[in-house]
Amino acid sequence: MSLPPGFLDELRTRSSLSQVVGRKVIWDARKSNQGKGDMWAPCPFHHEKSASFHVDDRKGFYYCFGCHAKGDAISFVRETENVSFMEAVEILAREAGMPIPQRDPQAQEKAEKRTELVDVMELAVRWFRLQLRTGAASAAREYLEKRGLNQEVCDRWEIGFAPDSWQGLWDALKGKDIADELIIGAGLAKPSSKGGKPYDTFRGRIMYPIRDARGRAIAFGGRAMDPEDKAKYLNSPETELFDKGRSLYNVKEARVAAGKGQPLLVAEGYMDVIALSEAGFGASVAPLGTAITENQLAMLWRISDEPIITLDGDTAGQRAALRLIDLALPLLEAGRSLRFAMMPEGKDPDDLLKSSGAGAVQALLDAAVPMVQLLWQREVEGKVFDSPERKAALDKNLREKIKLIKDPSIRSHYGQAIKDMRWDLFRAKSAGGGSFAPRKDRPWKSQPWGSKAPQGPSAGAKSSILATAADARATDHLREAVILAACISCPEAVEPFESGLETMACLDAEHARMRDMVLRYAPAGAAVLRGQISDVLGPDALENLLTQRHVAITPCIRRPGDVELTGMTIAEELAKLKAVRGLQEEVNDAADDLSGEADEGLTWRLAEAAKAADRAHRAGQEDKAEYVIADNGARLDRDQVTLSRNMFDQIDFSKGGKKDR
Questions:
Q1: What average pLDDT score do residues 521-546 get?
Q2: What's the pLDDT score for residue 498?
Q3: 280 near 289, Cβ under 8 Å?
């Protein structure tokens, strides 16, 4: 409805903001000056110990220097009471003694009906509570006592009982002259399909009143006493008062407890909430037996920036937690997320409290995991990633989920967290170096699929002069240094080459550790990457790498930040390194084979490699830095061709082979 001009200004003038806010906070006596209307307190919108929430009573505005919440008396009531704008105006107007302007007839009629429905619901709450004390409710009282709910607890939570009769509540309300349409409109009775009297919605059930954020009874939840009943729990139908997807059980009391610093816990059912609250976890709510909706999630975040989801440790509870991730991802904001505390298998919070006490629940809450960890667990649990295709599928699924996050900063942090967990899963065992995996086209040399780590050369190859040739190792070492320096100078260029870097064997431990840090921290940017390298390898490691002459003169090092040039450099050096090591592996295998009788095929392979080198030399290809194709399919440039000829010349064929040049 539209309000008359000046009504809101007068309402704000008559309402003392410090009095409105003072109901929710404790003022800091040292910082506040009540005479000047300058008041300070810990913020009611986020948990803190310092008084960063400022109220200027004269101007009628509040502002938090921590979470930046700001507004006037109306917005404060809206946020803290979880009500609409007009409801906040009505609350303040009643306190200020101001009459609410007349609404249009239709809106006025609707508001009056809602008030009447609330009155009918309160009558029902009292009637159900009285029935719990009757002889017909003896089994219900026994059940509640068995669950640890004595009379005092039942009174505190207003628990009642609906007798197993068709018109018990109906007759009681009609005896108070309540109109039929109000009883049915409140969801307490249903019209008969046979033309008879309407019948009670709840029969033979323990009754739990559901109240809104203002404390008004808006619905009931009923627990069946008959184990054969098709619906163990039954909620009120949706009415003008009750929208199941916009309501939370115990929301009003949970808001108060969360405002005092308690963590907001989300459980599955009424009994879990009652058990948690009675055990000291007062900021507990439940989503009324359904999966959490977007509106309920918004309500949770208005109470706490990081609610803890304490779902049951069964399959259904875990599925509910995983569904919630997809709902929450697009709605994440800085400082606003979810944490998850999964109960032990087969137990809910009530069971855990009874078996192990509040300490066990607190331990689970302290160990609650962030949402990103549960997202990762959902995608990897029960799966085997023993092939590139499976790993690629995992990467694709995770990328699609991360894309749902709208906030670019959060999206970036999720990407880095996922990368860290991926690293731990796939490369933790091979940290610190390693070598290229054996040739897959040589089954007699290969290790089985899924071997724990790549195997190095055999003892025969290790003792060969080829494996220890100073010029071969030096050349490889130089290329590694250029690749690593290029990656560190421009981390933005690294992503397309991650696979090549992962399989790049390093000749010394420092290069290997530097490579691992490039793979892990490149997405975080140059500053983070350099900082990590300095922390782990010492402040001189980077300087020693970047000041080497052959590194310093590399164009992309002289022009840091040039993504295209850096990418070309990394691609070229990786290709050269792969070609040389492919040829070296071929010759190492041959050298190893020479421990026995060499065959014609072996000497032929070696001869072909040498002939390719000679052809390149005779044709003057070395001077032109062109590539030639070796027997193993590798492309060799001038340096690699020279190296291959030298390697061939160094082989000792005295054990039965013949050198065919």
A1: 86
A2: 84
A3: no
Tell me how far CA of residue 509 lies from CA of 116, 211, 460, 478, 651, in angstroms.
78, 64, 23, 15, 29
Q: Tabulate helix, strand, coil % of the chain (nearest 5).
A: 55, 10, 40
Those residues whose C-beta lies under 8 Å from the C-beta of residue 148, and which sit 6 or more positions away, are: 275, 278, 354
From first CA to last CA, the distance across the chain in angstroms is: 99
**Sheet containing 369-370: order of strands:** 284-285, 265-266, 308-309, 339-340, 369-370
Q: Where are the domain boundaries for CATH 3.90.580.10 in the chain?
A: 7-96
Position 264 scores a pLDDT of 95
If we measure between CA atoms, which residue out of 308, 532, 534, 538 comes closest to residue 420? 532
Domain 7-96 falls in which CATH fold?
A: DNA Primase; Chain A (3.90.580)
Cβ proximity of 403 and 410 under 8 Å: no
Type of residue at 453: A
Closest CA to 209 of 120, 142, 146, 300: 120
What is the pLDDT at residue 319? 76
Distance between CA atoms of residues 344 and 351, nearest Å: 10
614 falls in which pLDDT band (50, 70, 90)? low
| Class at the top of the CATH hierarchy for domain 248-411 | alpha beta
Delimiting residues of CATH 3.90.980.10 domain(s) in the chain: 102-242
Closest residue by Cα to residue 350 from 459, 270, 467, 259: 270
Which of 220-229, 319-328, 400-409 is predicted least confidently?
319-328
Residue 128 tokens read as: 């159900």
Choose from 427-431, 505-509, 651-655 the range with maximum mean pLDDT. 505-509
Are 266 and 287 within 8 A, CB to CB? yes
**Tokens, residue 588:** 């190492």
Q: In a 10 Å sphere around its CB, with 0-12 CB exposed, 13-18 middle and 19+ buried, how is residue 425 labelled?
A: middle
Backbone torsions φ then ψ of 70, nearest 5 degrees: -150, 160
3-state SS class at 217 = strand
List the CATH code of the domain at 102-242. Answer: 3.90.980.10
Three-point CA angle 183, 188, 190, nearest 5°: 85
DSSP string for 525-548: -HHHHHHHHHHHH-THHHHHHHTS
Q: Which residues neighbour 411 within 8 Å (Cβ) at sequence distance 6 or greater?
A: 402, 403, 405
Any idea what DSSP says for residue 259? H
How many H-runs (helices) and E-runs (strands) does the chain carry?
30, 17
Assess whether pLDDT exceeds 60 at residue 640: no
Assess contact for 438 and 445: CB atoms under 8 A: yes
Q: Which two tokens stand for residue 306?
A: 């990081």
State yes or no: pLDDT of 455 exceeds 80: no
